[in-house]
Design a protein that fits this description.
mainly alpha, 7 helices
């Protein structure tokens, strides 16, 4: 058993520096990657969530509630609205500008602070709206 392990290791060390053509498996995987299409921006899943948010907004009379709360001059609503505006502007910056305009798909790797800032402002806005 030890002799077999030594033979395998020595063959790997011996072949380490040699350039070999890529294996058939590597060629197939690159061909599959080239054939894969990126997901569309608006698919059934996205459309469902957009329609669900519209239905919830209509069902709970959100706009009427906001109007009544604004007449009560609530500073919690004003704070939550400002925080939500910050959250949405960072999200639109990531999606529209970085991903669509600049072509940066992995923007969270280049700008690691954007996701925690967006999450924190959304949580703070949700607390203000409670």
């Amino acid at each position: 058993m030890t002799n077999l392990t030594e033979q395998l290791l020595s063959s790997r060390v011996r072949d380490f520096g040699q350039d070999r053509p890529p294996s058939k498996h590597a060629e197939e995987s690159t061909a599959v990657e080239k054939k894969m299409k990126p997901l569309t921006r608006l698919n059934i899943h996205s459309a469902f969530w957009i329609l669900a948010s519209i239905a919830v907004t209509y069902y709970f009379d959100f706009l009427k509630t906001v109007k009544e709360t604004m007449q009560a001059d609530s500073w919690w609503l004003a704070s939550g609205t400002c925080l939500l505006a910050v959250c949405l502007s960072v999200a639109f910056y990531c999606i529209l500008y970085l991903e669509w305009y600049c072509g940066i798909v992995d923007y969270d790797a280049q700008y690691p602070a954007l996701i925690p800032i967006t999450t924190a402002t959304f949580i703070a806005a949700a607390i203000c709206f409670m």
